[in-house]
Amino acid sequence: MRVLIAPDKFAGTLTAVQAAEAIAQGWRRRAPDDELDLCPMADGGPGFVDVIHSALGGELQALTVPGPGHTSVPAAIARSGQSAYIESAQACGLHLLGDTDPEQATTYGVGAMIGAAIKAGARRVVVGLGGSGTNDGGAGLLAALGATSDVELTGGAAGLAGITHLDLAPARRTVEGIELVVASDVDNPLTGLFGATKTFGPQKGIAEERLPAVDGLLEEFAAVAGRRTALDKGAGAAGGLGFALLLLGATRVPGIDVVATAVDLRDRAERADLVVTGEGAFDFSSRSGKVPYGVAAVAAESLRPCVALAGQVLVGSREMRTMGVEAAYSIVDQVGRERAFAEPAAGLAELAERVARNWST
C-alpha cells in the first residue's frame, strides 16, 4: 500500500518533519511493506521556511533581525531561484514576546527580512503570516522598508497614537518591481468586531479591557495609511502585517496552497492509496485554511481517502467528514493526556501503528 504522510506541526511539541517521521515509524511497525511518502506540511505560520526549504532545496540565508521587543533574533530566508520565502514568526512570533508588552511589540524585523531578501537578488518574496505576537498594523515592517511618519512606527500599536501623516513612497520604492505574496489563511479585516485586535489580541496578551483602545489605534493608522485597504480580506492577518503588505501591492494566497505547490502535493496524492495528515488539535478551526483541511481537499480531488492523526480530536464524525476526513484519531485517547505531552513522538508513533492496523491492506 502507498501512503502519503502529510502532517502539519503539532504546536508546542513536534515540528511537521518530526511528526511525519513519528507517524512513519509507527506505521512501519505494523505495515513494514507499505510504501511511505513523507511530506511535511505548513501553512504560513511557524515551520513554513523549513518545509519550503526541505521541498525546494536551494539556499538558506541566515541573518539576525530585531525581534518584537527590539532584541536581536536569528532568522532564515529560504531562497530558490529568484524567489525568497520568509516566515514572519521568526521575527515577531508569539514565542519571542517574553516580557515585551504586546501593545509595544514591533514588526520591524519582518521588514528587515524582506529588505535583505531583495538586496540578495530576490524578485519574488513570499511572506508567511501566522503565529505572530504583534499587533502594530505592520507599521514596523513599513518603517524597516523606508516609510516615515510623524510618530514612532517601531513602537508597536502604542506608538501609533496621534498619527496624522505617513509617507509610504520610500517603502514602495524599495519593493518596486518585486512580486510580494502574502501566504495566510486569515481573511479578517484590520479593525472592527472581526479585526486583528478583537479576534487575535487576547491570545497575544492584550488585556480584554484594552481591546477597544488598541483597535482604535489601528483605526487611526488605517485612516492615514489606507482605510479601503484595511477592509480587504487578510488585512488583519498577523496583527495587521497583512495590511502593511497589501499597502505595498502584495497579493494574498492561502499559505497551504503555497506549500502544496512547492511540495507537489497533488501529484503525490494521486500516486498514493491513502493520505494521512495531522495537527496538534483537530477542531472546528481546522476548516479555516489549516493544513488538514487543505490536505484533505487535495486527497478528495485525487479520489483518495484521507485520515487525520491529532493530539486531540474535538469534532464529531459528521463534522470531520464535511472537511473531507474519513476518520480522525487522538493521541490523548491512545496514550493518555500526560504521556501525550511528555512523549509526543512516541505517542504519535503508537497511534500511527494502531491506525495502520485499521487502514493498511
User: Which spans have pLDDT < 50 for at least 5 consecutive residues?
Assistant: none
> Number of helical segments?
17
How far apart are the first and last residues' alpha carbons, in Å? 7 Å
Secondary-structure content class: alpha/beta
How much is the radius of gyration in Å?
Answer: 21 Å
Walk across the major sheet and give the strand order.
3-4-5-6-9-10
Q: What is the CATH C level class of the largest domain, in words?
A: Alpha Beta
Please estimate the helix content. Answer: 25-40%
Find the count of extended strands (DSSP E, 2+ residues): 13
CATH architecture classification of the largest domain: Alpha-Beta Complex
CATH topology-level name of the largest domain: Glycerate kinase, domain 2
List keywords for this structure.
361 residues, alpha/beta, Rossmann fold, Glycerate kinase, domain 2, 2 domains, 6-stranded mixed beta sheet, 5-stranded parallel beta sheet, 17 helices, 13 strands, 39% helix, transferase, Glyc_kinase_flavodox-like_fold, Glycerate_kinase_RE-like
Describe the overall structure:
The structure is a single chain. 39% of the residues lie in helices and 19% in strands. The chain has 361 residues and is of the alpha/beta class. The strands form 3 sheets. It has a 6-stranded mixed beta sheet with strand order 3-4-5-6-9-10, with helices on both faces. The protein has a 5-stranded parallel beta sheet with strand order 2-1-11-12-13. Strands 7-8 form a two-stranded antiparallel ribbon. Strand 1, helix 1 and strand 2 form a beta-alpha-beta unit. The longest helix has 16 residues.
